[in-house]
Each structure stands twice: as C-alpha cells, then as structure tokens.
C-alpha cells in the first residue's frame, strides 16, 4: 500500500512557544512535517524562497513588516502552497483581509487543538475558504473594499508603512516595528500621501478603509480594520 504524502509545513509566528506547540501537535498526526520555523517576516521569506512547502501557518502580524506580509509572500514565492492564518485577532475584518490576501483559512489561537487540526487538514485538501466559527459566517463579512487605484503604485515598504498607519501607529513605533529609521518612515509617509492624493495620514487611512473622513476630528490611536490587501 502506498504511503500517503506528508504535508510540508512552514510555521511563522513571533512566539517560539506557539511555533513549538504547533510543531509537536502537527507531528503527532503523522500527516504533517514541519520543514521550517520562522519568527520574523524576513526569515519566513527566506524559507519560502529556498524550501518547498505545501502549507504555511502564520500569524496575522509577524515581527519585521506589516500585517499579512507572509501571506502575500507565500502567494508570490510559492503560489501552490496553502496558507492558514492563526491569530489572536477575533475581528471579522481581519479575517476578510486575510482571505483577500490569499489565505484559505482564518483560525483563532484560542481554538482547541482537536478542533483546529481538522480545519488545517481540510485547508490542505482544498476545502472552501473558512474562518473560525466564533467569527460567524463568511456571508456575514463585508465584501472586499475596492482600494484606490493609486494603491497599486505603492512600493512593498510603503504598503507596510500604510498598514501600520491603519493600526494607529506613530512614526516612532512604525520605525521600531519595521526596523527602519524615523526619517525613512517620514519619507515613506510623504510618498504615500502624495501617491494617494491624501491630505494627511487620517485621510489616507480613511481612503483605504472606505470610511468617512472628518479633517476636524482627532484620528483614533487604534484602528481595528486593516486595509484591503494588494500585491506587494
């Protein structure tokens, strides 16, 4: 009897505790083999360029770049690989953004392992896109917002900066998260505003999120909805 093919997995998460727990749980099924573990977006990209994988399990927000970057990198470097996003963000908008970026499943880290593994297996077998049942039905999620045409003009790094702006991050925090200088962040922000034709940061975020813009209002420090995905 021929042996069933073992699914090659790349685990991407900033927490070593999370990746080790997933590695052990997946190996116990004898259906998965973890061939790579990455704790930053850069490490994940290097693995995707060098190691064939069938499945990527990644957090929404991995250190080193903006949200969902590893999802987009997987689509770019290994388009046949399936991507499952495993997140603490119990927000339907993040789920929609993940699926729009190319993921086939959006699961919460609080899900019991015995419930999570069948969903991951289904994703590998080509099951329809799915999200954690606690977030409701896909039919209840808002449709993908059409981004401004100018959004496609942004560079990969400018898109990363815009994603952090949408989360309410100031320049100093963006610089820390993306490992770049404050001056570089300022340069990217100016380019983003120019390319989008936005009057200020809040206007740029409102354009991408499809929300209303009040120039007299103080922008919130935290924005729960990410921008719609676009190719890097």
UniProtKB/TrEMBL annotation:
<keyword id="KW-0805">Transcription regulation</keyword>
<feature type="modified residue" description="4-aspartylphosphate">
    <location>
        <position position="59"/>
    </location>
</feature>
<dbReference type="InterPro" id="IPR011006">
    <property type="entry name" value="CheY-like_superfamily"/>
</dbReference>
<dbReference type="InterPro" id="IPR039420">
    <property type="entry name" value="WalR-like"/>
</dbReference>
<dbReference type="GO" id="GO:0003677">
    <property type="term" value="F:DNA binding"/>
</dbReference>
<dbReference type="GO" id="GO:0006355">
    <property type="term" value="P:regulation of DNA-templated transcription"/>
</dbReference>
<dbReference type="Pfam" id="PF00196">
    <property type="entry name" value="GerE"/>
</dbReference>
<feature type="domain" description="HTH luxR-type">
    <location>
        <begin position="147"/>
        <end position="212"/>
    </location>
</feature>
<keyword id="KW-0804">Transcription</keyword>
<dbReference type="InterPro" id="IPR000792">
    <property type="entry name" value="Tscrpt_reg_LuxR_C"/>
</dbReference>
<dbReference type="GO" id="GO:0000160">
    <property type="term" value="P:phosphorelay signal transduction system"/>
</dbReference>
<dbReference type="InterPro" id="IPR016032">
    <property type="entry name" value="Sig_transdc_resp-reg_C-effctor"/>
</dbReference>
<keyword id="KW-0238">DNA-binding</keyword>
<feature type="domain" description="Response regulatory">
    <location>
        <begin position="8"/>
        <end position="124"/>
    </location>
</feature>
<dbReference type="InterPro" id="IPR036388">
    <property type="entry name" value="WH-like_DNA-bd_sf"/>
</dbReference>
<protein>
    <submittedName>
        <fullName>Response regulator transcription factor</fullName>
    </submittedName>
</protein>
<keyword id="KW-0597">Phosphoprotein</keyword>
<dbReference type="InterPro" id="IPR001789">
    <property type="entry name" value="Sig_transdc_resp-reg_receiver"/>
</dbReference>
<dbReference type="Pfam" id="PF00072">
    <property type="entry name" value="Response_reg"/>
</dbReference>
